[in-house]
Design a protein that fits this description.
Blueprint (H helix, E strand, L loop, with lengths): L1 H14 L11 H12 L4 E8 L5 E4 L5 E2 L5 H13 L8 E2 L2 E2 H10 L3 H11 L2 H10 L11 H6 L10 E2 L1 H12 L6 H12 L18 E8 L2 E9 L5 E9 L4 H21 L5 H4 L1
Antiparallel strand pairs: 1-2, 1-9, 3-6, 4-5, 7-8, 8-9
Helix pairs in contact: 2-10, 3-5, 4-5, 4-9
């Protein structure tokens, strides 16, 4: 009986989803981010991935957080996937409005109405969610339009319309690697994200002048998110997702975490004898 009980407990352990783990070469960065988060009143989730080497870091990487307007990256990706298949065109109009204008308003200015126009034309939240699932995306769910989300009672721990930091970084990775959309469509989205006008006090705030950032913010009462790409001095892009809820000074927390990530990944490149990422 004791053997059976032990066997069943081992089975239960194996069946649990794997926790997001940081690369061994980034344990120092993990410790720095853990220390940063421990001193903050907000609940913080972080994931970052070097899109060239595959080195990654996560803090509460498998914890769901509300996406808020960061979901607009997924809306843009689905639209461009249909452009790639010849089902739609950037020269189309929806409700008399040019698609190019709607896309720009959605990703540059975080226009909620423009987003819902595009989302409705694509078939609604369930179509976007199904497309993500069909492409093997897990840890990310889309349940409501932006208007429905904003009109609902605020619950920052609601699993609807949420993503884990790791899942969001995986979405960014798939976009960048042209797994979900073609390279031209990827470049179009990244160009719009590079012109993002919101959240200047988040990922970009503490980075050195001239660092290229393509990002999309998300904001609700008590919530601040920022996700996107940071280009390192060696040309590598780092996909980053930083979610914060509750507490105070959330944008500053995002800015400080982004700077830690930048410095941590940069140190791997400038390590005197070569980092593990480049010595394999």
């Amino acid at each position: 009986m004791r053997f059976i009980a032990l066997f069943l407990s081992l089975l239960a352990f194996v069946a649990q989803p794997a926790a997001a783990a940081s690369s061994p070469s980034l344990l120092s960065l993990e410790q720095q981010l853990s220390s940063l988060v421990a001193n903050k009143s907000a609940d913080v989730g972080i994931a970052a991935l070097d899109l060239n080497t595959g080195e990654s870091i996560s803090i509460k990487g498998n914890t769901p957080f509300p996406m808020a307007s960061t979901v607009k990256v997924a809306v843009a990706a689905l639209y461009m996937a249909q452009v790639d298949r010849g089902q739609r065109s950037l020269d189309d109009t929806i409700n008399g409005l040019p698609v190019r204008s709607l896309m720009a308003r959605m990703l540059i200015h975080s226009d909620n109405h423009a987003t819902d126009i595009l989302l409705k034309d694509l078939g609604g939240p369930h179509k976007l969610h199904s497309w993500l699932e069909d492409n093997g995306m897990t840890g990310l769910r889309v349940d409501r339009t932006i208007a429905e989300l904003l009109s609902a009672r605020r619950d920052l721990w609601d699993r609807r319309d949420s993503s884990t930091p790791v899942a969001m970084v995986d979405l960014l990775r798939r976009i960048y690697k042209a797994e979900l959309i073609k390279p031209d469509s990827r470049n179009y989205i990244l160009d719009l994200m590079a012109r993002c006008e919101t959240g200047k006090n988040r990922i970009k705030a503490l980075l050195p002048n001239g660092v290229t950032v393509e990002h999309k913010t998300g904001t609700l009462t008590g919530l601040a998110d920022d996700v996107g790409f940071i280009t390192m001095p060696d040309g590598h892009r780092i996909a980053v997702a930083i979610f914060t809820r509750g507490g105070t000074d959330r944008p500053r927390t995002i800015a400080e975490a982004a700077r830690e990530i930048y410095d941590g990944f940069k140190a791997m490149v400038t390590w005197p004898f070569g980092s593990p990422a480049f010595s394999r």
